[in-house]
Amino acid sequence: MYKWIITLLTLLFLIGCDSKPKEVLNVYNWSEYMPEDVIEQFEKETGIKVYYSTYDSNEAMYAKVKLLESGGYYDIVVPSAYFIDRLRKEQLLHKLDHNKLKNWKNLDPLFLNKEHDPNNSYSIPYLWGTSGIAVNTQRIKDPITKWQDLWNPKFKNKVLLLNDVRDTFAMTLTLLGYSINTKDEQHIKEAYEKLKELKNNVRVFNSESPKQPFINQEVEIGMIYNGEAVMAQRENNNIKYIYPQEGVILWVDNLAILKNAKNLQNAYKFVDFLLRPEIAKRICEEIGYASPNKEAKQLLEEKIRNNTAIYPSKEIIEKATIPTDIGDTIRIYQKYWEKLKSEN
């Protein structure tokens, strides 16, 4: 009997060991930023198990990466361009071997070799988009054309602001005529004071899924990422995306492999998989953001390529501003951001 029990326990142990995936990949990405079926297809094709976690701001991602840096917990992150700049300067990113990415050729040169990462030594453009205004035109009949419109007293308790310090301050700095990348504390303080005037109108701060309060009709107007607006329109075609006259915020989010990634080769396989035109096309179609993959764009239906909420006009792009790394000045922004959110 004793030998039988030992044999059974040994067998159960071996079964347990065999059930654990031998090849894994740990991805840390923005919420609602990659279709589940894309991950499932990668797992099916490669046998690599993807463990997928999400965040709702660059700052949250950065804090977690710093905390877990030595353990190499995550393999891939998806920072905005200005955080790529910070991460590479702090030597937290793996220097890429482009020879391992056969689908690199599919990327549009327009998005490559930028100031935040010369020669794209550390990052791969994933998706790009804008932050503008969403409005429920069934509830709000007045024409909405400017950021300033959010301050209209008629919108008390009806406004959504992104729960993102840089985006929300960028909106306000643009309105005040200052650079969205200012390091001048007086300008930042003025933006804070302006946002205080808006506080009575704000119903919710949300950057994890800002479309949802619009779909649920909890809010009627507010800041939003363009892709979230596109997804909201699928549920309610009264929701419109507006490019404010003062100028929109344009950003590019990038795939990057962390320096201490434990599953380096699997990370390369995943990135190259995402660069396949048919995969990049599916991501654009489902998530609602523009793809920097020129071959994928050619595969899109004309109605998507011509949807200005996804692919803005040249005039809109020329007037847009792009966040850059502001170094330690971020602490000043965060100080006023925390004050803003804590005050009644």
Automatic annotation (TrEMBL):
This is Putrescine-binding periplasmic protein. It is found in: Periplasm. InterPro entries: SBP, Sperm_putr-bd. One of its GO terms (biological process) is polyamine transport. GO terms for molecular function: polyamine binding. It comes from Uabimicrobium amorphum. It holds the Pfam family SBP_bac_8. Spermidine binds at E32, Y82. Residues 181-208 form a coiled coil. PANTHER family: SPERMIDINE/PUTRESCINE-BINDING PERIPLASMIC PROTEIN (PTHR30222), SPERMIDINE_PUTRESCINE-BINDING PERIPLASMIC PROTEIN (PTHR30222:SF17).
